[in-house]
Amino acid sequence: MTPPRDRPAKPYGFRPRPRTQQPPGPMAREGRDHVVLYGWHPVSQALSNAGRHFHRLLATENALARLNEAGVALPIEPEIVRPSAIDRLLGPDAVHQGLYAEAEPLTAPALDAMPDDALLLALDQITDPHNVGAIVRTAAAFGVTAIVTTARHSPNATGVLAKSASGGLEHVPLVIVRNLAEALITLGERGFTRIGLDSDAGTSLDAVGPRRPAVLVLGAEGKGLRQRTTECCDLLVRIDATGAIRSLNVSNAAAITLYALTRSVGTPG
Fold first, then answer.
1. Residue (of 23, 84, 91, 94) closest to 57 by Cα position
2. Ranges for the RNA 2-O ribose methyltransferase substrate binding domain (predicted)?
3. DSSP notation for 197-217
4. Fewest CB atoms less than 10 Å from the CB: which of 27, 67, 216, 234?
């Protein structure tokens, strides 16, 4: 007798749970239709973003009291849980600070919707979610208009990336493109100065000065910018380090370069 075929898995659908019921499962449930956010800054900033739509919010009593004290409005009824319940979803090493949420991804704007005076970042196959999250946080600090990234060879805006971004995802949108080189060509045709960061570049960052509109292009640590990406840049610049260690983490390099590009032109209000 032929054994029955396995039934296809049912799509994920949110079902409200009683407030006292513990969430099941040993891992956070990430999928195409929702993202996982945890920690004070990622969750509180997301709750304050009218563009976020939530499926689920877990909070400890202390975290909920902190949200109330901060005046954060809750668009969804929270489930009150013990810290160990969130530990079971994320693992014991995740610093969740008593907050865990499942939400829909934010809508990605189109490349042609970027304003004519925009300051953009473009990420060339940076795959480490910690680095990308730190870049998003830095971008939010310097008023970057948006971050251009590809659908492939880039981490999803969820989990560790969102935690590392410390709420920055709610302030700096991600523009998802199919091909980074084509996106840079399009931006160049619109008058954007395309500035690639390269430790071996012949031009120092000090010689560039503030630019708008501009797109700062960052490559992955170790590999740097790909050849095709380099060919699409108007300028290649280096950061002159004077200490014993000459190489910088890509998120630190992004912060230094953004400071140089914005120090006298200000940031959009």
1. 23
2. 36-109
3. E-TT-SEEGGGT---SSEEEE
4. 27
Nearest to 102 by CA among 25, 171, 9: 25
Can you identify the CATH homologous superfamily of domain 111-262?
A: SPOUT methyltransferase, trefoil knot domain (3.40.1280.10)
What are the start and end residues of each CATH 3.30.1330 domain in the chain? 35-103
**pLDDT score of 4:** 47
Its sign, for the CA torsion 161, 165, 167, 169, is negative
Give per-residue pLDDT as tens, 25-74. Answer: 334 554 446 899 999 999 999 999 999 999 999 999 999 999 999 999 99
Residue percentage of the chain with pLDDT more than 70: 86
Read off the pLDDT of residues 90-107 as tens digits, 9 standing for 90 and up: 988 899 999 999 999 999
Q: Report whether 53 contacts 103 (CB < 8 A).
A: yes
Q: Which residues contact 10 (CB under 8 A, 6 or more apart)?
A: none
